[in-house]
Specification:
Distance between the termini: 19 Å
Cofactor: Co(2+); Ni(2+); Mn(2+)
Helix content: 25-40%
Subcellular location: Endoplasmic reticulum
Main location: endoplasmic reticulum
Catalytic activity: (S)-ureidoglycolate + H2O + 2 H(+) = glyoxylate + 2 NH4(+) + CO2
Largest sheet: 9 strands, mixed
Radius of gyration: 23 Å
Number of helices: 12
Bound molecules: (2S)-amino(hydroxy)ethanoic acid, manganese (II) ion
Order of helices and strands: HEHEEEEHEHHHEHEEEHEEEHEEHEHEH
Keywords: Endoplasmic reticulum, Hydrolase, Manganese, Membrane, Metal-binding, Purine metabolism, Signal, Transmembrane, Transmembrane helix
């Protein structure tokens, strides 16, 4: 095969589109909700089956596979310089309830296929290449987004918090991890990677927005990832009989939650920027009976912005509104906790250039853009230079079963990723 320092001949880039297409269908079958939706939650039986499926694909691609204490999975292809810091790529395969089969998966199956593409072309890496399946990117089970990549990036307080974290069924994180064969011992700080562990990290992902499809552009080159934050809020009131308690005598925790949800929308719209977003995706009432005044409410708020200050200001105002509601409605604010309040991340110029060159060599149109969704790349950026490659998805749909990316778009993304990895491996 040509020495690793020679550029790859583009004509040699061959991709097995049919195999890749079948893999999306096969992986989507590991789901706790009926097709075409996908539900695959951290450490559940379907998650474990899906992990096994991906580890098998890594083996077939000739990658040497290792797993860390919480189930981040690494597939490595050593090159001429095995002692050099590797170039890494990867994404997640966990899927929020009733979502689609491309979010995250494109960056895992696509990365493995990119390895095949490079091997078929006869490329020999100089820096090792590593494909990472991050143990869970979605906050579904334990309320923490990007659990795997946060820990790889060395989050001490998350490692401590996980010793006492439980899911909604009161199963502890460590017991859940152990049921999936991980976390042999309590200390999960073994997961932390050292800075410089990778020379670069690139993630392939669907855009989860409509811009590329609307503008007929093949590839998005991410310049920055928006700053995410999530809050958990609970109100308490006296509850009581829906017929017997007259309106002036009520302190309805359910209405307090409803008012706060509308306040989230108000504060976000007042921010003065279209880039500020806020969502109340979880609103639970206790006891949840039609004829019982809610005595407890639990709401979870997701708010993001590309401007961290502006986002933090919205959080302040949400907190003020929560306190005001306790006064006007006579309820108790029994919880107001900020689960995560992360800064944005900027992509590295070097990685952006490598992706841009790859799209040009492949004659693909591309566009610089920000990512409004968060990704494991947000935390990998704390370990090494980072970049992301977006491909179009149908009407920008994501986090719902109609999510779709065409084989052509996936193939473009895989080829851009393959060329980008090759360039970064030779640097
Ligand atoms: O919510 C997000 O931004 C990611 O898709 N989980
Ligand atoms: Mn199909
Ligand atoms: Mn997602
Ligand atoms: Mn994702």
């Amino acid at each position: 095969p040509p020495h690793s320092l020679e550029p790859i001949s583009l004509s040699s880039l061959s991709l097995d589109a049919q195999a890749l297409h079948n893999q999306f269908d096969e992986l989507a079958a590991f789901s706790d909700s009926p097709a075409p939706s996908v539900t695959r939650v951290l450490y559940t039986e379907k998650d474990v089956l899906a992990r096994r499926y991906v580890k098998n694909l890594m083996g077939i691609a000739g990658l040497s596979v290792r797993e860390d204490a919480i189930g981040n999975i690494f597939g490595r292809w050593d090159g001429d310089g095995p002692e050099l810091a590797a170039v890494a790529t990867g994404s997640h395969i966990d899927a929020i309830p009733y979502s689609g089969k491309y979010d995250g998966v494109v960056g895992v199956l696509g990365a493995i296929e990119a390895i095949h593409v490079l091997k078929r072309s006869g490329f020999k890496p100089r820096r090792p290449l590593e494909v990472i399946l991050f143990t869970s990117e979605e906050p579904t089970r334990f309320g923490m987004s990007c659990l795997g990549s946060r820990l790889l990036a060395g989050s001490e307080n998350l490692a401590n918090a996980l010793k006492t974290t439980t899911d909604s069924k009161n199963i502890s994180f460590l017991d859940a991890a152990r049921s999936a064969g991980y976390a042999k011992d309590d200390d999960i700080s073994s997961v932390f990677l050292k800075k410089g562990a990778y020379s670069a990290f690139v993630e392939l992902h669907i855009e989860q927005g409509p811009i590329l499809e609307d503008e007929g552009i093949s590839v998005g080159i991410v310049t920055a990832i928006a700053a995410p934050a999530s809050l958990k809020v609970e109100f308490e009131g006296n509850g009581g009989h829906a017929g017997a308690v007259l309106m002036p005598n009520r302190n309805d925790a359910g209405l307090a939650a409803a008012e706060l949800a509308l306040a989230v929308e108000k504060h976000v719209l007042e921010s003065g920027s279209i880039d500020t977003v806020g969502t109340v995706g979880i609103l639970e009432l206790h006891p949840g009976a039609i004829n019982s005044i809610p005595s407890k409410s639990h709401i979870e708020i997701d708010t993001r912005d590309i401007d961290e200050e502006r986002r933090n200001h919205v959080i302040e105002k949400i907190h003020q509104s929560a306190i005001k509601i306790t006064k006007t409605r006579g309820v108790k604010l029994s919880k107001f906790s900020i689960v995560n309040q992360d800064p944005p991340a900027l992509s590295s110029e070097a990685v952006i250039n490598a992706v841009e060159t790859a799209t040009r060599e492949l004659n693909l149109t591309s566009k610089l853009m920000i990512s409004r969704a968060y990704h494991d790349s947000l935390f990998m950026a704390r370990l090494s230079p980072m970049g992301m490659i977006f491909i179009p998805c149908y009407k920008g749909y994501s986090h719902k079963p109609e999510e779709f990316a065409s084989v052509e778009d996936i193939a473009n993304g895989v080829k851009v990723l393959a060329l980008t990895l090759a360039k970064l491996s030779l640097q």
